[in-house]
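Recall the central idea of this unit: under ordinary conditions, the amino acid sequence of a chain determines the structure it adopts. In this exercise we apply that idea directly, starting from the sequence alone.
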Amino acid sequence: MDESEFIARALRDYLRSRVDQKVIRSMDWDLEAGEPVSAVCEGLAIADQYSLSLPPLFVQKIEGIEDLRDMEREFIVERLANLPAWWELAS
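Accordingly, the structure predicted from this sequence is:
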């Protein structure tokens, strides 16, 4: 499993607990097709659509995905910019 697939699976699992399973199915299809970057993009679109913030580690790892096409990079940057800020809960 390469880094982008690991990130896509982690993002899918994170989102799975926050949105309906039917919404996540598109990420599953991308992963089954061997398209982890598409799954990441789909996950970011879902997070944007539902106004879900992502933990900073997710953002850092997603931004660090290598060998992206320009179109994919632009999509990722736009979606990350649209997400609400992550606020850590006080313990």
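The chain is about 65% helix and 0% strand.
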